[in-house]
Design brief:
The protein has 251 residues and is an alpha+beta fold. The protein contains five helices and twelve strands.
């Protein structure tokens, strides 16, 4: 936008350390130094927020942001504790509960139904009881990346990029790639894809999902039973409900 293209001044600082402990101690000193600078400058609205450090930037990074209604970014911020994070870096904690006994995995005909919203309307189930697929391709080699995530959530592409250590772009699905657009699911998925399971699906059951067959979906998907080898990672955009759980978990 217009704010981003304005000229700005940037300051870099570098330090060298003999151990991780020494680095962390010095980082904390610099962190507090910036807090004192902004306080002395009369800018109490400036807050330090956890931010994305990129694929090569290490495990900890903070940005100092001035809270204003006309800013260029959005942060997750708790007024009752010290948790603050850029939306790109904010952890998403979902409440994964089993919904009664595991149902049988059933193949259901769903003609001309391609979107997760339409399939949930057709089945009479809420979005959070579905497993949707979001497809990307790696910039380096165009390899497909299939992300499975709970139907009411969206993928945080910054988190996904950092996890893959690859830049990505939205996938262009063709007949040759072996994916069935609108009907992609985790069961019987075959092909040379990278598959990522968001942590929102861990331990869930009785979900609807694509059947990897044109015009069909599954109901009764139970992740532990039907996708036992899935490894889960947080690649979801944070929601107000997820942020409330994060804040509540901080002493």
């Amino acid at each position: 936008g217009l704010i981003r293209v304005r000229e700005f001044t940037m300051k870099d600082a570098y330090s060298f350390h003999t151990s991780q402990e020494d680095l962390e101690e010095y980082y904390a000193e610099v962190y507090e130094a910036y807090n004192r600078i902004f306080a002395r400058a009369g800018l109490p609205e400036v807050v330090a927020v956890k931010s994305d450090s990129g694929m090569m930037g290490g495990s900890v990074s903070h940005e100092y942001m001035l809270l204003t209604p006309v800013g260029e970014d959005t942060i997750a911020y708790c007024s009752d504790c010290d948790y603050r994070a850029n939306m790109e870096a904010a952890a998403s904690i979902t409440e994964n509960k089993k919904d009664g006994d595991d149902e049988e995995l059933k193949l259901v005909e769903t003609p001309n139904i391609h979107t997760i919203e339409d399939i949930c309307t057709f089945l009479g189930t809420p979005l959070e009881k579905s497993c949707k697929a979001v497809v990307y391709q790696q910039n380096s080699d165009d390899k497909f990346v299939v992300v499975f995530i709970r139907g009411d959530l969206d993928v945080n592409e910054t988190k996904l990029t950092n996890y893959l250590c690859e830049n990505i772009h939205p996938g262009v699905i063709t007949e040759e790639c072996g994916l069935k657009a609108g009907f992609i699911g985790p069961c019987n998925l075959s092909g040379d894809f990278r598959v990522v399971y968001d942590s929102s699906l861990k331990g869930t059951n009785n979900l609807s999902c694509g059947a990897n067959k044109e015009g069909y979906h599954y109901t009764g998907l139970c992740m532990e039973r039907d996708v036992p080898d899935a490894e889960y990672v947080d690649v979801a955009k944070i929601t107000p409900a997820a942020f409330a759980r994060i804040a509540a978990s901080i002493p």
